[in-house]
Amino acid sequence: MKFTATQIAGLLEGEVEGNPQIAVHKLSKIEEGEKGSLTFLANPKYTSYIYSTKASITIVNKDFVPEQSLSTTLIKVEDAYKSFSKLLEYYNQVKNNKSGIENPSYISDNVSYGEGFYLGAFSYLGNNVTIGDNVKLFPNVFIGDNVKIGNNVVVFAGAKIYSETQIGNNCVIHGGAIIGADGFGFTPNANGEYSKVPQTGNVILEDNVDVGAGTTIDRATLGSTILRKGVKLDNQIQIAHNVEIGEHTAIAAQTGIAGSTKIGKNCLIGGQVGIVGHITIGDRVRIQAQSGIGRNVKDDEVLQGSPALSYGDFNKSYVHFKNLPRLVNQISNIEKKVEGEQNKQ
Predict the structure, then answer these.
(1) Catalytic (active site) residue 241
(2) pTM of the model
C-alpha cells in the first residue's frame, strides 16, 4: 500500500516541502532510509543523516531549517516524534485490518461475534463464547468455553485464552500468552505428597490492557485474578492466582508476582522483579529492576534491592558495600597494630 506526501501531510496536519506526489510504501530509520520509505527526525543527534538519507519522505518539526540541500521531501509538523508514532499506529491498524474466517478452524454452534470479525486458520472457539465488534483473532488462537471478549480486541497468533476469562474493550494480547491457566495451588499430605486444589475462578482484563508475548496470567482459586483498565504487561511475566493489578500500572519483562498480592494504580515495576504473595503494594510505587519485594509497600515508595530497601537507602548502602574491602583492610591493620602494642607490653 502506497501513500503520497500530500496524503500523509493531511493525516498529520502537516505542510509539505518538496514533491507532494512522491509516494512511500514502507517505514525506515533515518540512517537506513531507502527510496520509497518514510522516516522522521526528532532527535538533534541524528540531524546529519537528513542530508544523506535516501528516504523519500522525512517528517520533521516545523522549526527545522536545512543548512544543506536535501534529496528527501519534508513534511513539517508540530511534533515529529508524536506524528511518526501516530503513523505507526495507523500503519498497524491497516496491516491488521483483516476480516473473515479462515479454514480450517473450529467454531462451536453457540458462538456469537460482531462486525469486522477475523479468525485466523487453525483457531478454536469453544462453547458460549461472546465476541464484540472488530475483534481480530490470528492463527492458532485458542478461546475456551464461556469466554467474553469486548470490542476492538486483537489476539495474536498462538495465544491461549482459557474458559471463563473476561476481556474488555481495546485489549491487545500478544503471541504465546496464556490467560486463565490454573493457579499454582497444591496442598501437602502427611506423606509429603501434593494434592491439587481445584482452581475454580477466572481472569478479568478490563479495558485497554496490553499483555506481552509469552506472559501468563493464572485463574483465581476462587473469585477473579483482575487487571484493571490500562494495565501494560511486557513479555514473559508471571501473574499468579488472585492477584489484582491497579489501573495504568506498567510491568517490565520477567517479573513474577505470587498469589493474592494486590498492586495499586500508576505503579512502575522494572524487569526481573520478584514479589511475594499476600501483600499489598500502594499507588504510584516505583520498583527498580531485579528487586525482591517481601513486605507491604506504602503509596509513592521507590524501592531497589533484594530484599528491597528504599531507593535512597539502597544507594547509600551500596556506597558502603563498595568500600567494604578497604574498610576490612583498615580494621585488619588496626588489629595488627593493637596486637603489636600488646606484645610490646
Answers:
(1) yes
(2) 0.81
